[in-house]
């Protein structure tokens, strides 16, 4: 019925990064959709088993949990929720990227707002628009014209040396990388107009697979020295802190 949720977890040398935070969000998303709480011990065991069977230097674990009936990947009989854990190899993303803004809005007050559901078709369409323009991410405003997030990332801007990111009430996902970067750099949650992208000194994205990634072009605007000094520092802090603690 489409009532699915998911998580993408980075695995570094066979160890999942920030797994506790991902499992917390999985549970929150399940509750938001009215699915039974996932059995987190089972999810942890499944992740460990998949990682052990497929050693890759840098991996992306995809956890999908649905209310559906099919036995696919499930040992719960033919009626219960279904958990699938898959692993793909991935590579470190480039330090900078281009983004576009899209004319569609994120609904900051929808039933699914803030839940990591598998209903990502709108994101897929927006991402295709980005790819048409040589970019790797599309950024959404919300229904009141505030900056919100990307299709699979959160967005940060630097204004007068200070780092800002939209608050959760903008409709963005509570990104795990967003949270860690905000804690580790002191970034502030600020309501920002979408237009801030035209004047911000620096812009960067955060996500599980991008980590901290500087933006060197937004629509037609080139940001000459990306990553700028504040973004470069945030990247360094994130790399150091995340290397020191696998489950921060
Ligand atoms: N926003 C959306 C819509 C996402 O799908 C993701 C990716 O999971 C993020 C933001 C970034 O979140 P995280 O840092 O937890 O990967």
Describe this structure in words.
The protein is α+β, with helices and mostly antiparallel strands. It is 29% helix and 31% strand. It has six helices and 13 strands. Strands 5, 6, 7, 8, 9, 10, 11, 12 and 13 form a nine-stranded mixed sheet that branches. A four-stranded antiparallel sheet has the order 2-1-3-4. A hairpin with a 2-residue loop joins strand 8 (154-159) and strand 9 (162-165). Helix 4 (176-185) packs across helix 6 (229-244). The two termini are 35 Å apart. 41% of the residues are buried. The model is unreliable at 72-76 (pLDDT under 50). The structure holds pyridoxal-5'-phosphate. Residues 8, 149, 152-154, 173, 175-178, 206-208 line the site of pyridoxal-5'-phosphate.
Structure at a glance:
The chain is α+β, with helices and mostly antiparallel strands and 248 residues long.
Number of helices: 6
Low-confidence segments, given as residue ranges, are: 72-76
Fraction in beta strands: 25-35%
Number of strands: 13
Q: What would you report as the Rg, rounded to the nearest angstrom?
A: 18 Å
Mean pLDDT: 94
Shape: globular
Helix/strand structural class:
alpha+beta
Biggest β-sheet strands, sense, barrel: 9 strands, mixed
Which small compounds were modeled alongside the protein?
Answer: pyridoxal-5'-phosphate
Amino-to-carboxy terminus distance: 35 Å
Helix content class: 25-40%
| SSE ordering | EEHHEEEHEEEEHEHEEEH
Catalytic activity: 4-amino-4-deoxychorismate = 4-aminobenzoate + pyruvate + H(+)
Cofactor: pyridoxal 5'-phosphate
Subunit structure: Homodimer.
Protein name: aminodeoxychorismate lyase
């Amino acid at each position: 019925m489409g009532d699915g949720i998911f998580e993408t977890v980075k695995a570094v040398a066979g160890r999942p990064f920030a797994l506790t935070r991902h499992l917390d969000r999985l549970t929150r998303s399940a509750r938001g959709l009215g699915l039974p709480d996932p059995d987190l011990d089972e999810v942890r065991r499944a992740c460990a088993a998949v990682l052990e069977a497929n050693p890759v230097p840098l991996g992306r674990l995809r956890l999908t949990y649905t209310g559906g009936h099919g036995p696919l990947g499930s040992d719960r009989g033919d009626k219960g929720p279904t958990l699938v854990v898959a692993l793909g190899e991935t590579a470190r993303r480039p330090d900078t990227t281009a983004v576009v803004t899209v004319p569609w809005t994120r609904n900051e007050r929808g039933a699914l707002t803030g839940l990591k559901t598998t209903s990502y078709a709108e994101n897929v369409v927006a991402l295709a628009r980005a790819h048409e323009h040589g970019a790797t991410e599309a950024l959404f405003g919300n229904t009141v014209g505030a900056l919100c997030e990307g299709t699979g990332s959160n967005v940060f801007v630097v204004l007068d040396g200070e780092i800002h990111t939209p608050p959760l009430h903008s409709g963005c996902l509570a990104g795990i990388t967003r949270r860690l970067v905000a804690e580790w750099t002191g970034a502030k949650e600020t309501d920002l107009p979408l237009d801030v992208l035209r004047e911000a000194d620096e812009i960067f994205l955060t996500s599980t697979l991008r980590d901290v990634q500087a933006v060197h072009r937004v629509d037609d605007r080139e940001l000459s020295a990306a990553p700028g000094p504040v973004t470069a520092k945030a990247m360094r802090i994130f790399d150091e802190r995340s290397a020191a603690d696998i489950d921060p």
